[in-house]
Amino acid sequence: MASKSTVEVFTRKGVDEKVAKLLVENGYTYTKVARANEKTLRKIEKILGERKLKRVLNAIKTKERAPKKKAQKPLKKPKITKKEIPTKIEPLRPIETKMMTMLEKSGRTLPRAVLRDLATRLERVKMPDKLLRQVLDLACERFEGHVIDPNESVGIIAAQSIGEPGTQMTMRTFHYAGVAEMNVTLGLPRLIEIVDARRVPSTPIMEIHLEEDVRNDLDKVREIASDIERTTVIDIADVETDISNMEVMVRLDKRKMERKGLSPIEVHKKLSKAKGLKGLADLRDENVVVRCDEPSYKKLLRLSEDTKSTPIKGIEGIHRAVIRKVGGSYIIYTEGSNLEKVLEQKHVDKSRTTTNSIMEIHEVLGIEAARNSIINEASKTLEEQGLTVDIRHIMLVSDLMTNDGDVKAIGRHGISGRKSSVLARAAFEITSAHLLRAGMTGETDSLEGVVENIIVGQPVTVGTGAVNLVWSPAKKGGQEK
Amino acid sequence: MRYTRFERARIVGARALQISMGAPILVDVPDDLIDPIEISIMEYNEDVIPMTVKREG
């Protein structure tokens, strides 16, 4: 008799294993012993002896149970396959190295991105070195002209540069794009959503790109889309409640089933495993029937509701998948978003598939991806409204939101509300409460920010105020500084 | 060393204050030029102001 679990019930209560085995072999389970009357107890006593019986009974009386021992699997050694880490930086082109050495000689620097841009323009142009040097000189000059001065109050400029076009945005824009007619939040509401770092956007949307070998095959793309789109029973069948027979009839729609690539057997399998319907589903002819196991109309009604909403196929959270042809190949757009699960799907191009839910990107891909996604989403929304905001302003906002490893909102619950300086927080909102609290807890303020210094009447730490002068009398006119 | 526009403003301003309070002028100035700020700017252009900035970080 395989009674390992029966023995375990005893041992978990602190009964000696040998004794427990003996009991089980004689046909006593834990409940039998625990609820034993005088007669059975005497029988057990015969088997075990008085002392052991007492110990067993004591053990059973104690309420505590040892935690269930789980058979510990030896940890698998993780298999590490050597894979090339994808880098965004392409190797230097010959012309780039040439330019680099040239710049080094003249003691100047240009960022890699600028060099790359220059290189792509100049790659096929034959030019003497002297001319190239001139080009570089000019590029350097232009570049230095655009570099922002240290101590410039970039935050204020960024706030103004985003705020002003914001006033021109339409308050409420609903946009039905293309044939798919998907509802997308755009304009000011979307921008607010991004900046507030909402957990779920009001219209989550995914853009699923596919791998090269399938992206032009419409049938295959349809198949993938139907694997992604959430299909519930009600989408493929009529659900009827049969009161006289106390059962829920699921009349499967053949056409719809075919389109989704489902068979009645699969539906039956899913239904019989579904929550609240375990083992109640039966396959009858081409249809599925869910029997009600209790003579209760309430239960029957609940079964019917549960049946209707049972997911058969697809990924949780994705309500609709739409296929659109963009630039020669098919892309799946979805209403609803679940990046983690979608990336696990076959044939999904993991490097290009995106979602507009920034939090999801943060959870699945990390903070750097979230930062990029904030930048992309914000500049996309602004661009769609025909407003051009320099990307650096948005980058600053995005950096500020993500710099401590999670995505913080701008505003009361985010950056402004969590500043370390009391005076800065007090200047932002609910002044007295902040000051009172700070007074009670004895906070210190190191007067590093702008607001704090304005409050105490000192020069602020940006711009001219941040410059420290030193007396240098040795300097004479014309001397190199 | 090249100054940023903030540093320039600060140096010129500090020097103008000194001049306004009677500090000896370090450049030759036409007689009708009496504005300390103008004088300070001239000094700055001549690079004779005995001040420099301390840059941190």
What's the Cα radius of gyration of chain A?
Answer: 35 Å
In CATH, the topology of one domain in chain A is named: Gyrase A, domain 2
| Shape call of chain B | elongated
Distance between the termini of chain A: 95 Å
Strand sequence of the main sheet of chain A, in spatial order? 10-11-3-12
Looking at CATH, the homologous superfamily of chain B is RNA polymerase subunit, RPB6/omega
* Count of separate structural domains of chain B: 1
The proportion of residues in beta strands of chain B is 5-15%
Helix percentage of chain A = 40-55%
> Using DSSP, what is the number of strands of chain B?
1
Number of helices of chain A: 22
Number of helices of chain B: 2
Strand-helix topology:
The complex is a heterodimer of chains A (481) and B (57).
Chain A: H1 4-12, H2 17-25, H3 30-34, H4 38-48, H5 50-61, H6 94-106, H7 112-122, H8 129-146, H9 154-168, E1 173-177, E2 182-186, H10 187-195, E3 205-208, H11 218-228, E4 231-232, H12 233-236, E5 237-242, E6 247-252, H13 254-260, H14 264-273, E7 281-284, E8 287-291, H15 297-308, E9 311-313, E10 320-326, E11 329-335, H16 339-344, E12 354-355, H17 358-365, H18 367-384, H19 391-402, H20 422-428, H21 431-441, H22 450-456, E13 468-471
Helix pairs in contact in A: 1-2, 4-5, 6-7, 9-19, 10-18, 17-18, 18-19, 20-21, 20-22
Chain B: H1 5-20, H2 36-46, E1 51-54
Helix pairs in contact in B: 1-2
